[in-house]
Amino acid sequence: xxxxxxxxSDYEGFATLIKEWPxxxxxxxxxxxxxxxxxxxxxxxxxxxxxxxxxxxxxxxxGRALEIYLTxxxxxVFQLIHKHNLFSSIKDKIVLxxxxxxxxxxxxxxDNEDKISIDRVVEELENRPELQHVYLHKLFKRDHHKGQRYxxxxxxxxxxxxxxxxxxxxxxxxxxxxxxxxxxxxxxNFVEETVYLLSRMGNSRSALKxxxxxxxxxxxxxxxxxxxxxxxxxxxxILYSVDKPPFITALLNNIGTHVDPILLIHRIKEGxxxxxxxxxxxxxxxxxxxxRKISVNHACxxxxxxxxxxxxxxWCSTADTFHKECxxxxxxxxxxxxxxxxxxxxxxPGSAILEMKK
Length: 358
What we know:
Layout: H1 2-9, H2 11-20, H3 28-41, H4 46-58, H5 62-72, H6 77-83, H7 94-100, H8 102-111, H9 118-124, H10 129-142, H11 151-161, H12 166-172, H13 178-187, H14 191-200, H15 204-215, H16 218-228, H17 231-241, H18 245-254, H19 262-265, H20 277-288, E1 294-297, E2 302-305, E3 313-315, E4 321-323, H21 340-347
Antiparallel strand pairs: 1-2, 3-4
Helix pairs in contact: 1-2, 2-4, 3-4, 4-5, 7-8, 8-10, 10-11, 11-13, 12-14, 13-14, 14-15, 15-16, 15-17, 18-20
């Protein structure tokens, strides 16, 4: 009688009594029905809904309680699931769980995969692809192989909802159909992902072409050529760069230990202004000397490969070589220990290149 009186006049007071009074003091079924009748008149009343969920819990009707808690986005919903082992009750409420807190929901689902299968979760989320992605992404992070049958689906999901993680997924998945991935990435003009896929499928030259033409990123192109270690790629990169002075500078600074710089230098058009050319030439001399000796005729700017010393060359103590006639007179005597290139190493790149004669 007291509960009925409070239910008619004071919802908050009614809720407090339900929390404080032991459930065996009243007929739970009758009280539940009374609350349901009041909710018909006020279906969004959160106090009544919360109290009804508690009544269902007292009556061990946990599935009903869970549904209300999910509707209310109650903080104790996950605790209720664990405490009463309600995994069978949430199989058809996965979307509600995910909408409430996707991170916690995914953890619960993955931690209890034996009770709710991966296939069941994916099926329940079929009409909510953004939530499907959240679940499959976390599954993939935990285990690269468990959800392998869904890797093809994940390509589109990453492309649509989470592009930053698409490339890492493509790199880590061994079950991803590369042709399908390439098709999707090309349709969406995802250049970096397309470059990776082309390279992985053995089409490195097309990949390099995309880096140069689409990204216009010479540093990335150089790094790609280094990774592939393919002479044809370096040749393509050189041919593409010969009419672009900034590209030439970048190549001169990086090419020395990977491919003969002469291949690039011979292609530079006469009169072309190259940014920081002197510094780049010094770096070439420093890098390339580790493998083979480059001789530079500084006066006439003609370069030749010095494989063996000859009477027309002068060697300093560190084996840099020059045309004798291109050295200042004071440096042609046998007592000289260091050339201008060696001195430049102590004063900074390019600071000791000999002045060109007119």
